[in-house]
Amino acid sequence: MNRAVKIFLIFCFIIIFVPGQCQSDWKKETDTATYVNTKGTLPYRIFIPDSISNSEKIPLVLFLHGAGERGDDNESQLLHGVKYFMNDTIRKQFPCILLVPQCPVSARWVEVDWSRPSHKMPLISIPLQQVFELIDSLILVLPVDTERIYITGLSMGGFGTWDALARRPGFFAAAMPVCGGGDEATAHLMQQTPIKAFHGNLDHLVIPARSVNMVKAVNDAGGNAECIVFPKLGHLCWDQVYSDVENIRWLFSHKREK
Question: Which of 89, 155, 158, 244 ranks highest by number of CB atoms within 10 Å?
Fold first, then answer.
C-alpha cells in the first residue's frame, strides 16, 4: 500500500470516528427509565443536564411522539424531532430537562380517529394519565421550574399536545403542536397558554383544518395562538419545525403566569 493511500485511509478513519460526529451519540446521554402504576408500565427517556447547580431551577420539555414510534423498546420515540433539542448549541442556549415518554402500540395519547374532521374529547387515555403522574413525580425530585414546563408533539403527539392543554389548563408555559388536532369546544381551557401550531398544507393523513380550526377557536376564546401552514409540505413537516431555532427560541421565551 503506497503512502498516499495510507494517509487517505487514516484521514477517513479520523473523520468517521471523531467524537460527536455520530448522529446517535446524543441518545446515549439520555437516561432510560419506566413509570409504573396500576394501569401498566410507561417507558420513557429523560435528559438532565450535568451542569445545573443544586439551587438552580430549569425548564422541562415534554415531547410526545407520533404513532409510528409506539412500542416498548424505549428507543423508537427518539426517531423524530428529539435530536434538535439535544443539539449541542440548543442545549447550551436553552438548558432543560427533556422528557420523552413512549406510548404502547395498543393505545394513543388521545383515543380518537385522526382522519376525522373533528372530535369530542374522550376520557383521558391511560398513557397520557401516566405522563401527567410522571411529571408530577419528577417535579418533586428534580430542579424543575414549574413556571417553564413546555409541551410539544407531532402527529399523534400533536393530538396529545392539544388534549393535554385542555386537561391541565394553565399548567404549561407554552405549546407547539405539530400536525395534530383537538376538540374545539375545549379551546376556552387553553386561553392562558401561548400556542404555536404547525401543519403541512398537503397533509392527507391529518387535514390542515384540524390545526387551523383549533387555533381559531383558541383565539376566539381570548387566547394567544397562531398557526403556521407550510404550503408545499405534507404530513411529515416536523423537521421543518424543530430544525428552526426560532421556533425553539419561541417555546423557551414563555413563562407561565403565577
Answer: 158
Instruction: Report yes or no: 70 and 153 within 8 Å, Cβ to Cβ.
Output: no
Rounded CA gap, 257 and 220, in Å?
21
Grid cell, residue 196, equals 404555536
Q: What is the pLDDT of residues 141-170, one digit of tens each?
A: 999 999 999 999 999 999 999 999 999 999
Order of strands, sheet of 225-230, starting from the edge strand that comes earlier in the sequence: 31-37, 40-47, 97-101, 58-64, 144-154, 174-178, 195-200, 225-230
> How far is residue 147's CA from residue 66's CA, in Å, rounded to a whole number?
26
Cα distance between residue 111 and residue 199, in whole Å: 21
CATH architecture of the domain formed by 30-252: 3-Layer(aba) Sandwich (3.40)
> 156 with 109: CB under 8 angstroms?
yes
Grid cell 503512502 — which residue?
3
Sign of the CA dihedral running 114, 177, 150, 195:
negative
Domain ranges of the chain: 30-252
